[in-house]
Hints:
Helix 2 (62-79) runs parallel beside helix 5 and helix 11 packs across helix 12 (312-322). This protein has helices at 27-42, 62-79, 81-119, 141-145, 156-165, 167-176, 180-194, 213-233, 241-258, 285-299, 302-310, 312-322, 324-345, 349-385. It is globular. With 386 residues, the protein is mostly helical.
Amino acid sequence: MVAQHEASAITPVQVAPVKNGQGRDHRIDAMRGAALLMMFVDHIPQSLLNRFTMRNVGFADAAEVFVLLAGYASWLAYGRGFKKYGVAGCLKRIFRRCVQLYIAQAIMVFVSVASIRVWRHFTPVPVDFLEPELAHGIGWIWRAMTLDALPSNLNILPLYIVFLAGFPLYFLLMRLQRYLALLVAGALWFLINLDPDVNFPNWLDPDGWYFNPLAWQFLFALGVTASAETERRGRDFPRIPVLSFCCIAYLIFSAFQAFPWAQWSLPDLRPLGDLVSPAKSWLSPLRLFDVLAIFYLMQSSSVARVWASDTRVGQILARVGRYSLDVFVVGTILDLYARLVFTSFGDGWILQIVVNVVVLGVLFALAGWLDARRKRQQSQALAAAG
């Protein structure tokens, strides 16, 4: 299991104390925990739970939340790290984290390919479970190891590796001028939306990486900038009534437009009818505005702060978010087995309940065990120091 002591966008986040004395902000961890669980559910098409995730009530889904929060937490882990550990020390920490993410990606790819190859010897497996290039031989291995081959549902960690590797450059631009880096990132995102064919190559897909890094880097950059600005101000985002109203109005429009009315056998109430679904691959503006509206409302809300830190549900989600790399790796592998079980044995109510309860139970138990282990290690360290 990946060591959790290394702070990063996928590990425990320490947020700078705010002036009102409310201390650590658990909202980032709670939002990330919720995003992880929704990503797990969304990757199982046969699961009835995916009817209740955020992609059904808005243009964006959990992936946008995950990347935005990765940027936010990266500043906490590394933006402050250059001053704390020095340039060489912080670069070493970033490199070590990239290696951890790379190992996690390799584990998921090899376990997925091996599992499907073995499973199909006993029962038929639909072709969409495994790209044809991965179905035979070993020639694909070097492409997977160089991130030139990104299978479906295994393409978000490589995205984060690219962003984290580029973080020192982004930090340098921020040091030159606070918003210069954000301006450059936004300009690149805009250009990719004009010409989405500009992308990283993917041996398994002629269109390139599903999450186009040249576009999605803007969302990561927004998270970094928001984190740096929150730290500089020493308090939450200001709650501006007009801006809050615009965010809520946009999310209501997004919910009505994106809701699967036909799937629920309900009258179609979409304001714009058959509007083309906003592209996820290059992060179309409608998806970007959606996740930013959610983020602003959460980060400017004292109620959300209290909910994340003082309620049982908020604490459970925050715990999942604090160990999200471990949860993500285990959840992705369990995703695959859940899909295989549903495909091989049907998706009736009994299997729906058993599969979802067992898998979600494993993820919650994993987060609980990791949290207990961390607290035990901290207690031992304090005892040794005393």
